[in-house]
Design brief:
With about 270 residues, the protein is α/β, with parallel strands linked by helices. The protein is built from nine helices and ten strands. The protein has a five-stranded parallel β-sheet with strand order 5-4-3-10-9. It has a three-stranded parallel β-sheet with strand order 6-7-8. Helix 7 runs parallel beside helix 9.
Length: about 270
């Protein structure tokens, strides 16, 4: 089993995606907020530099009569990550990515997700593989949403995806990381960034993802659905930073029995 090389210090510890370095390892969505002002304040509190946009649900110029997200969160300040949320076939996902590229003046970084059914929102892996292959050939830089299968994650990497994003739990469920050993295995075998996507419910979930060695976390509902989204966004920012530092620091091994903080050997009396 190969182990991905990780920095041993937090100095200059940036997240590298598609040739660009980001200081924040938290990626956030822009949907489900009560209004544009709450969206703006929450994104600002999160410290995120990459924001996801559901092209089928968010106006970024499709309707000139409606509020435009680009006016609230300008591309001069944020890296947009158009996503294919709501797509249930490779064809729909490909069409959505191409629309996003047209609306955003050639922007080629996208989040690909092709869903299998409306109840679980689990990814349809066959359709996702098909869409990823075509999009990569078409010049897109694909960050792909997938299940927590290490074999499939490696296949997406080998295809040329710039980041692989396994789910922690079903989208919007808030259940946290259900299969931490799968996530750890994916991380250990990867040479591209691994980001947990979907299922985070609170700050401790985000910290756990980072402690497992993930390169980042993408979330929307956990922040937008909180009673105080702006405060939760701030909490998530701190959790990501703490989890990353804990991973770099190296936790103590788990032991079945106690181990005294102050050993008896060498005491004066």
């Amino acid at each position: 089993m190969s182990t991905v090389m990780k920095p041993t210090t937090t100095n200059d510890d940036g997240l590298l995606i598609a040739g660009h370095v980001y200081s924040s390892r938290l990626l956030v969505g822009t949907g489900k907020y009560k209004d544009m002002d709450e969206t703006r304040r929450s994104v600002e509190a999160s410290g995120a530099q990459i924001i996801t946009v559901a092209i089928r649900r968010t106006n970024i110029g499709q309707d000139p009569k409606q509020p435009n997200l680009l006016d609230t969160l300008p591309m001069s300040k944020y890296t947009y990550l158009p996503n294919t949320a709501g797509c249930y076939s490779a064809e729909d996902a490909i069409r959505t990515c191409r629309l996003a590229r047209e609306l955003l003046d050639g922007h080629d970084l996208v989040k690909l997700e092709v869903l299998g059914d409306e109840k679980t929102l689990f990814p349809d892996i066959v359709q996702t593989l098909s869409a990823a292959e075509i999009l990569i050939k078409d010049g897109f830089k694909v960050m792909v949403y997938t299940n927590d299968d290490p074999i499939i994650a490696k296949r997406f990497e080998d295809m040329g995806c710039v980041a692989v994003m396994p789910l922690a739990a079903p989208i919007g469920s808030g259940l946290g990381i259900r299969n931490p050993y799968n996530i750890r295995t994916i991380v250990e075998n990867a040479k591209v960034p691994i980001l947990v996507d979907a299922g985070v419910g609170t700050a401790s979930d985000a910290a756990i993802a980072m402690e497992l060695g993930c390169d980042g976390v993408l979330m929307n509902t956990a922040i937008a659905g909180a009673q105080d989204p702006v405060l939760m966004a701030s909490a998530m920012k701190k959790a990501i930073e703490a989890g990353r530092e804990a991973f770099l620091a190296g936790r103590i091994p788990r032991k079945r029995f106690a181990s005294a903080s102050s050993p008896v050997d060498g005491t004066f009396f």
